[in-house]
Every structure is written in structure tokens, then in C-alpha cells.
Amino acid sequence: MSHLVKIPTRSKKIIQEIVQETGESQMAIIEHALLAYYREWRMGKINEAYAKLREDKQAWKEELEERSILG
Questions:
Q1: How many degrees, rounded to 5, is the angle at CA 8 between CA 36 and CA 15?
Q2: Which residues does 26 contact at the CB level (< 8 Å), separation at least 6?
């Protein structure tokens, strides 16, 4: 299923600048940007989970023990 979305003028200018500099297609640039955003978002979620785990002293101790066994 295909959906059309309106890309803001500022974003269009950024995409065009990258197109001119790299020769990549607009779609490739948008995909790169989306994947970079996704990786950043996922890493944030992982960091939140680890922060929550570290708050639980017993769970964090078990995590460190498991790492030492596997490491």
C-alpha cells in the first residue's frame, strides 16, 4: 500500500542538497535518514531499559553475574 505524504519545504531543501552532493536518489536519502532515525530511537529505548534495570539492584546484580559467566 502506498501513501503520499507532504514533505516540508525545509526538508525538501535538505534532501536536494544531499542529492546534489552525493548523486543519490531522493528515495535513497529518505531511506538512509529513516534508518538512522530508527537506530537512534531503538538505542534510546535500549538505554531506557538498561537504566530501569540498573535501578533494580538485585536484577542488576543478576545481570552482571550472567555477563561474567557468558563473558
A1: 50
A2: 15, 19
End-to-end CA distance of the chain: 45
pTM of structure: 0.75
Contact 30, 38 (CB under 8 A): no
Which of 52, 11, 46, 54 is closest to 30 using CA atoms?
A: 11
pLDDT, tens digit (0-9, with 9 covering 90-100), for 13-43? 999 999 999 999 999 999 999 999 999 999 9
How many helices and strands in the chain, by DSSP H and E? Answer: 3, 0
- The predicted pLDDT at position 2 comes to 85
Amino acid identity of residue 23, one-letter, is: G
